[in-house]
Amino acid sequence: MRIARYLDEGWQDIALLADGMLCAGLNARTEAERQQSLESAARVQAHLAHSNPLTQVLDIRRRREDGAGCKAMVLSHPLMDGRWLVAISFTGTTRHLADWLDNLKIEQEDGFHQGFLRLTRQFEAQCGQIAMPCLGAALSRPGLTLAGVLDMLKYERSPVSLVVTGHSQGAALMQIFIAHLLQNGVLPQYVLGCGFASPCVAGARTLKNADYPIYHIVHADDAVPRIGGAMHLGLCRVMPDTPALRGLCYGARSQDPIFNELLCLQHTVRGTRGALCFFIALLRLLCVVPEEDAELLYRALAPAFLPGMLQSRLVGYARRLVGSALRRLESRYAACFGEMDMQQLERYTRWLQSLFARYGMRETLSRLPDALHMPHMLYRIDTLCAYDVISGAAPRRLLPALWSGDESPVWDQRPPRAPAPVRRPAYDRFHPLSGQRRTAQRRKML
C-alpha cells in the first residue's frame, strides 16, 4: 500500500481497498494532488497497521456481519504502443486475527476454497465503484470504472491488458479472480496472472489447469503452496531447496540443526489434511505441558502468533487459547475430512516428541515459527527473503511442475541438491504479454 514509488514512476488511477475501506482515483498530476493521494494511502496503511485488541475483536465481529476483508491495489499505466496496462495486486495474510479465520474456511464452495472464494467475490462486488478517471479520459470514456475495463477484455483489439499478482492469500484470490474472468468471456490473451507462494484453490483435479494464463513462483521449502485445495490453476515454477539458496534466504539459521530438522518436518506436510493433522498434534502436546513450563513456552511463541498488544494481554490465557484452537481445528478437520487419520497424527506426534527430547521443547518451539514463516516471506526492508532471492535468480533454475492426476508435484518429492539442466517441456507455453512467441500448436501433455 506504499504508493509513492508508483506515483513517481507514472502509474495512474491508483485505488486501495482494505476491509471495506476504498480510496480510488489517486493520481499525481499536480503536487497538491500527489500530496492528497499520499495522505489517503496513509490512512489505509494506518488501518492495516492497527494492533489494538479491541479493534481486532471488532474486526472479527464486523466480518461476520458484512464479510468485507479483501485487500487489494489497482493501478494503470500507458504503454508505448498507445494501449494501457491495468494491474491488480491482492495482499497476502496480515497479522490480523480475522485474516486467519478466512484462511481456515477450508470447506469447498462452487469448486473453490470457501474463504478465498468469498474474499474474491467481495473484490468483484467493488469493481463498479473503483473509478479510473485518467484511463477513461485517454479512451474517451468518462466515468470509466474497473468493471468497465474488465468488459473491454472480452473483445478483440482491446485497448487494455490486465496483469494480476498476489502473494500467499493474495495469490489464491488472483487465481479465482482470473478463473471468473475467463468464465465471463474475457479473452485469455489479454490477461496474465503471477503468484508468489500460491496456495492451491481448486477443489478437484479435473480442470485443465495449463489452459489458465497464470504462473506461480514456488519455493520448495514453503509449505503454503501445498495446502488450501487440491490443485493450482496455471503453471508452477519451483525453486529447489539448495544449500546455497538456504544460506541466502535464512542467513545464520541455515546452519542451525534444529531449524533444518524443522524444515525437513514441514516438507512432509502435504495437503490441507496433513497441515491440520500437524497442528493438531502440536497443540495436543502443548495442552499437556507442565504448568511451570507452560508460561515460558507461550511467551516464546507469542511474538510470532499474537499481534502487537495481544501478546502481553493474552499470554496468561494461553493454555485456554490453545485448547480453544485445538477444538476448532479438530471440528474443522471432522467437517471436511471425517475421521482423523490416526496413523499420520501419531507420526507427527512421535517426530515432535523426538525433537523435544533432543533439543528441548522451548528451543524447538522458538524456532518453529521461523521454519514455517521464513520460507514463505516475500519482502522485508532489513534483510533478504526467500521470494525476494528467487525473484532475482536466473529463470533457468526454476523447475516446471504440474499436478497430474493423483501424483504429487515436484516440490513434494524433494528435488536433488544439484539438479541437472532441465529441458523445456512440451507443455510449456509462453503468454503473449511475456514478449515470447506463442507456439502454433499445443501439444498434449503426457
Which descriptors would you attach to this protein?
nine-stranded mixed sheet, alpha/beta, 446 residues
Structure commentary:
The structure is a single chain. The chain contains 17 helices and eleven strands. The two termini are 43 Å apart. Helix 11 (271-287) packs antiparallel against helix 14. The model is unreliable at 306-312 and 414-446 (pLDDT under 50). Strand 3 and strand 4 (84-90) form a beta hairpin. It is globular and about 70 Å long. It is an alpha/beta fold.
How is this structure best summarized?
This protein has 446 residues and is an alpha/beta fold.
What is the element layout, followed by pairings?
Elements (H helix, E strand, L loop, with lengths): L3 H5 L3 E7 L2 E6 L4 H19 L3 H14 L4 E8 L5 E7 L6 H7 L4 E2 L2 E2 H13 L6 H6 L7 H7 L7 E8 L1 H15 L7 E6 L17 E6 L15 E5 L3 H8 L6 H11 L3 H17 L3 H15 L4 H5 L3 H20 L4 H18 L1 H13 L12 H7 L6 E3 L45
Helix pairs in contact: 5-8, 9-17, 10-16, 11-14, 11-15, 12-16, 15-16
Number of helices: 17
Amount of helix: 40-55%
- Count of beta strands: 11
Q: CA-to-CA gap between the ends?
A: 43 Å
Helix/strand class: alpha/beta
Radius of gyration: 23 Å
Task: Show unreliable segments.
Answer: 306-312, 414-446
Mean residue pLDDT: 80
Q: How much of the sequence is in beta strands?
A: 5-15%
**Spatial strand arrangement across the major sheet:** 2-1-3-4-7-8-9-10-11
Largest sheet: 9 strands, mixed
Order of helices and strands: HEEHHEEHEEHHHEHEEEHHHHHHHHHE
Q: Judging from the principal axes of the Cα atoms, what is the shape?
A: globular
